[in-house]
Description:
The complex is a heterodimer of chains A (about 180) and B (about 110).
Chain A: E1 15-16, E2 22-23, E3 33-38, H1 44-60, E4 65-71, H2 83-93, E5 99-101, H3 106-111, E6 115-116, E7 118-122, E8 128-132, H4 148-157, E9 172-173
Parallel strand pairs in A: 3-4, 4-5
Antiparallel strand pairs in A: 1-2, 3-7, 6-9, 7-8
Chain B: H1 12-28, E1 32-33, H2 37-54, H3 64-69, H4 81-88, E2 96-97, H5 99-107
Antiparallel strand pairs in B: 1-2
Helix pairs in contact in B: 1-2
Amino acid sequence: MAFRLDDPAPGFENLPGVDGKAWSLSSFDGLKAVAVIFSCNHCPYVVAYEERMVDLQGDYAGRGVSLVAINPNNEATHPADRFEKMEERAKARGFNFPYLRDESQEVARAYGAKFTPEVFLLDGERKLAYKGRIDDNCYEPRNVKTRDLRNALDAVLDGRTPDVRETVAVGCTIKWK
Amino acid sequence: MNSKTEQPDARPDAYGQARRMCEKYVERGPYFFYPDAVRVENVIRGLAKNKEERGRFYCPCMPIEESLQKGGHNVCPCTAHHDDIARDGHCECALFVSAEFLERERREGKG
């Protein structure tokens, strides 16, 4: 069944994180918003957005928000997405948010993810408030016109429905098994 | 006014070449652009960036190190795109899509 706006989020259980812990959706209980971002190690779009993801976490963590990046890519065809490489990447790029492995790709399928990076912003009730891109300009952070994820986060934290609920993610296609 | 700040990051000629190349390819058929202008714009900017930096329209979704090792395989439109579109409805970077994919997206209110 498709995961649509305002639907309760599909749960996930015990996904391995690069921090050595097992993470579930319930691990974020109590937070006002969770930005689930399907991501990977090698996609040039993710690489372009990593610094912005770190900045987002830094800016919003104090307001009861967490990003969580989930890598669902098929490591058989894309060995750069192996867990060991995720650990290296997170350390090298200073990830300040959980980075989890979805080896079976079940979570990505449950969410209906298609691209990396692709955002599924969950509100305080863990319903889908916004899905899609982080912003509208992958290559030129200074020339971003719409800061889609930030706008949606601000709305959710204010108790409002985001003005823009859905955009098409800017990123590479997920590498399915 | 600094005209450079109004241009995409690649020089105007690389961006213009990338856009014209893609538009001509779509005009030729049988494929269409992915039905989201912002997404298409970002892919074209990625093509232009690779043209500017590496001399060819390497697919912006492939790590450039891999593309450089594969000769022209990943130069847009890439060698694999016909098979990818036949299987998935879109090419690797979802720049070009099939008519069937476009129709599906439209039925779902996305195109």
